[in-house]
Amino acid sequence: MIDYTGTVALITGGASGIGKALAEVLTARGAKVVIADVQPDAASAVAASLDGLAIVCDLSDPAAPAALIEKAFTWKGRLDLVCANAGYGRNKRLLKEPFDEAAMNLLAVNMFAPIRMAQAYAEQLTAAGQRGRLMITGSENSLSLPDAVRRNGLGLYGATKHSVLIMAEWLREELRGETMDVHVLLPGGVYTPLIAKHIPDPKNLPPEMHIIMPERCAEIALKGLDLGLFYIPTHAHLADDMRPRTQGVIDALAALRLTPH
Known about the structure:
Elements: E1 8-12, H1 17-28, E2 32-37, H2 40-49, E3 53-56, H3 64-76, E4 81-84, H4 101-128, E5 132-137, H5 155-175, E6 180-186, H6 193-196, H7 214-226, E7 231-233, H8 237-255
Parallel strand pairs: 1-2, 1-4, 2-3, 4-5, 5-6, 6-7
Helix pairs in contact: 1-7, 3-4, 4-5
């Protein structure tokens, strides 16, 4: 079990949802938290409630991830955990996607920012002679096309979440155990403000959506970190959701009569 006493953790998207829950549970376990968010008032409120530091940050700016890491590191002269959690969705069918500025911002925040943060974090750790830990928030959409969202037009969002998973896998391969440990949180449905906007009362959540509260997601995330897991899924059905893709490849190999030599 990781001892967070006296450590510093940076959480992007820390003003609400999964990020806020992560900040709360990390604080409860002894960490000092840095709350980074694009919402200044909400970030300040969460940071104040946890005796932490708030940093207003728009991760769609290519320079923002490195600047954020530097500020977080400078606060206490260390940065033990980075939770690259910030992200958001976009409901637009791919055939109608204009790839406008809003779409580019989505790619910047969901896909590029976690890796830009990893680059800057590695540099800071190396310069300080310290070792760190990085947890990137992916999604059930990193692994499959979930039945629950098939009609929601999340193609570009799903692409960003697929991307952060493979980039995290490559990052782990490149690091080969040096500098930092890497983990990927893979949440299924979580009751974040995005869902609360449509279903204000969690008692009205359809059971088939398998929605969990952010606090439960954060609890699973930290357990995954304690266990040293790279993949940290939050729902049992994620494995079943992956099977159609795997089976599709197996069936295609059989149809093509391709067998291992």
